[in-house]
Records
---
Amino acid sequence: MANAGMDPETFGQFIDQLQRYVRERLIPAEDQVIADDMIPADLVDEMRAMGLFGLTMPEEYGGSGMNIPQYTETVRVLSYAMPAYRSMASINLGMVCSALKNSGTEEQKTEWLPRLAAGEIACFGLTEPGSGSDSAAMATTAKRAGNGYVLNGSKRYITNAPHAKLGLIMARTHDAALPKNAHISAFLVDMDTAGITIGKADRKMGQSGSHIADIYLDDVKIPGSALLGAEEGRGFATAMQSLDNGRLSVAAASCGYARRMLDTAVRYANERKAFGEPIAQFQLIQAMLADSEAEIYAAECMLRDASAKANCGTAIIECASAKMFASEMCGRVADRCVQIHGGAGYLAEYEAERFFRDARIYRIYEGTTQIMQLVIAKQMLRNFAAGIIA
Ligand code: COS
């Protein structure tokens, strides 16, 4: 059944407030974020005070109770600003909240959802040095010890690892691979537990102010109550279900940031003159603007449709399609934005250059475009075999 979410009028007011906040506070602070490679602490506090970390948590756990379409619309609006802001809140709002809501026990929800809603940061530990796209091949182990488990292994490219208080960590509870990847379980790990160390934040191509790092797990003793859903073998399904949600967030981020790029390109095309008139008057520039507008619109429509379907149940094809199309679209718009800026587009003092670098990861994380193709095709073939016709 569809989740009704937040009352539409309150949601509309929230979006108006967020749009103003993005333009009046977040965008003006971008240069500072780039210079420090860090969102200023007072801005993070403001984001907490606005409830931005708890939008998707149910109200009874201290959140705002947004449903999936409201959550993705919020991410889209937030993503008009540089990606670091979404990055800080998105693991709370998307993957970890979704895993807790869908699979957590009542005790786990009661313990963690209010903390996340209040702004404690979460991270999602799936990828490892030896397993990215092939996530079921992970090497991190969770061995039973008394009433609890001992974790050993490492996780790589983990967004927010340096800030996280909660890690949703996937680990093998069986040495051998099991059907449906049931050798993997998910654990809610307090990141202050002894034996956890965080690597140095990695230097990246773009996305200043957002941090990824390795997590090292060395004989980390966790209680049995940390097993998500109190059930072994559900970790892969939980991770995939959470990734459906995370993929919608990347689709929304791609739509929001592409809109920013296009607005910037339109402004520049009106200001910059060549052959005696603004370059916006030239049809070949207009073609790039028009293609970008139409593609952003298409991605926004997909995002809304996929979000509505995911709000009613599983929507694997739609989530993967929206992520694939929107992230690829964002890359094309970023490229055109540089092209419209001409030589200036290659210079760091213009925004187009960093838009281009920032956008590149959208086609990679939460599942590459190539993995999205596999996910979509696999589901299509399953539907065909089951006689399901669209
Ligand atoms: N929702 C709920 N359960 C799901 C699911 C989803 N979207 N996808 C898979 N599952 C569960 C199901 O139980 C499924 O079995 P059934 O389909 O028979 O019910 C089981 O997991 C196994 O799924 P599948 O057969 O699709 O697993 P594969 O090993 O074939 O999956 C891919 C392969 C490549 C699709 C998968 O490993 C993947 O998506 N990898 C990319 C991971 C990724 O995005 N990494 C990026 C970084 S993470 S931040």
---
Amino acid sequence: MKYDFNYYNPTKIYFGKNSLDSLAGELANYGKNILLVYGKNSVKKIGLYDKVTDILKNAGKNIFELSGVKPNPSYSQLLDGAETVRKNNIDLILALGGGSVIDCSKGISVSAYCDGDPWEKYWVNGETVTNKIVPVGSILTMAGTGSEMNGGSVITNEEKMLKNGRVFGPDVYPKFSILNPEFTYSVPVYQMKSGIFDIMSHLMEQYFSGDDDNVTDYVIEGLLKSLIVSTRAALKDPEDYEARSNIMWNATLALNTVSGLSKTQDWEVHMIEHQLGAYTDCAHGMGLAVISIPYYKYIYKDGIDKFVRYAKNIWDIDVSAMNKDEAALAGIEKLFDFIKECGIPTTLRELGAAEEMLPKIAESSVKGGGYRHMDTEDILSVLKACY
Ligand code: NZQ
Ligand code: ZN
């Protein structure tokens, strides 16, 4: 472990089939006014909305709502939520949904009492939050982002054509998160696959950087191997509890910062996907899957030993008769095979991108990288390779 770190994660997790039973006890810690934030209709369809509102009513709470939060949550919806918080003196924001709903809730939490323009202050300039923060709790219905146990809030500003991510400190992490794998059974298969590739990408973004011997890389390898096994089982039977519960907890561990401790990290696939999302509104994980293959083929020579290790340890490839290039590329090819096996898109066209968007996406993406620094031309080459 080469780099010093402090680790603190304040989110309390309730995990399992009976985890919703813990909500009443948690509510006792907060005042009367609750803002319920949710998406379009899934929480009503699966009966979760009724269960949660019953618990809130029995606890004597006043319920306010922000509904219809979009996948790739918009800044304008966040501002509507912030106004509701101010007008009604909200004591707790309860997010009921996937990453978009939780990200929007964290955004509302820091924006409601912000002095100035929250977008500029927090999502563009990355300023520290000094204004009042409204506590957030979450009930997760879809596995993928890890937002249930981190400070991330990715918001799309539709006017500016920007999808910006901000990682806030522990004060903004959900105070508690309720994770019942059964709530994810109803997630459409396309969204389930998107969430799964998001998890895989979070793990690889943290893995493909640095060449020191680091316990975190072994943790990531374990999570990647488990994810592959659980994905195959869940695709065969979406109601396989063991598989769905493994995927759900894997998602949380992949981005509650444990899988990045004492490591340099990459995150360029995410930076490119965020702008792809701003232009196409594609499902986050699907965008990541399409970009990953050409991106890794573009950078692997700069981190070749790690790519050889990936081929051996994740995909069990016998590399003994291969040179490093062959071994690294064989690992990337296995990842591509897995993407195809899962029925995940492999081209930008399938995600609704038009060719003329590519230079704009490349230009507006945040530039960075792990093994290699990517500039606009590099990103454009990657985008063209997966168009
Ligand atoms: O709107 P509803 O009707 O609820 O439907 C949602 C939505 O259409 C549906 N869904 C969720 N749970 C369901 C369900 N449908 C049936 N049954 C259920 N139980 O799934 C659709 C997608 O939901 P969404 O919340 O958008 O998915 P996800 O969890 O993948 O979140 C994606 C967003 O999170 C950001 C992404 O960029 C994207 O904006 N990210 C957040 C991160 C973080 N906070 O740390 C990190 C990630 O890298 C990512 O960038
Ligand atoms: Zn992601």
